[in-house]
Amino acid sequence: MEKKQEKNEKVHFKCWQTQKCVVFLKRTDKEEGETMLQISLKAARVNANLRQIDVADKMDVDVSTIIKWEKEKTAPRWDQFKKLCEIYNCSTDDIFLKTRYA
Fold first, then answer.
1. What global pTM score does this model have?
2. Sign of the four-CA dihedral 37, 85, 71, 73
3. Confidence of residue 3 (pLDDT cuts 50, 70, 90)
4. Is residue 2 part of a domain?
5. Do residues 81 and 97 touch, judged by C-beta distance below 8 A?
6. Whole-angstrom Cα distance, residue 77 to residue 33?
């Protein structure tokens, strides 16, 4: 019997530090039946209390690149994604990207 694929669901929370609304994506792992909450790149940056220009400086990229990543117009390379996670102090599993790395 084939398992029914569950859709991603957006869940809104308020960050207790900034009182800004952050969006988590609730994903269900089809194989293990686990529900994971993943945060968007923008929410991770907000939670790290950083501005886009701060992240761009640390990443040595233009601020327009950070904006494109946050709006999911482009995706960071794997090495850039790992560096973002270090800057945001979170794991690669915590952040949702349309492009998933193997």
1. 0.68
2. negative
3. very low
4. no
5. yes
6. 29
Find the domain containing 54 and state its range. 9-94
Domains in the chain, number: 1
Q: What is the pLDDT of residues 55-82, one digit of tens each?
A: 999 999 999 999 999 988 999 999 999 9
Residue 57: give its domain's CATH number.
1.10.260.40
Q: How confident is the model at residue 35 (pLDDT cuts 50, 70, 90)?
A: low
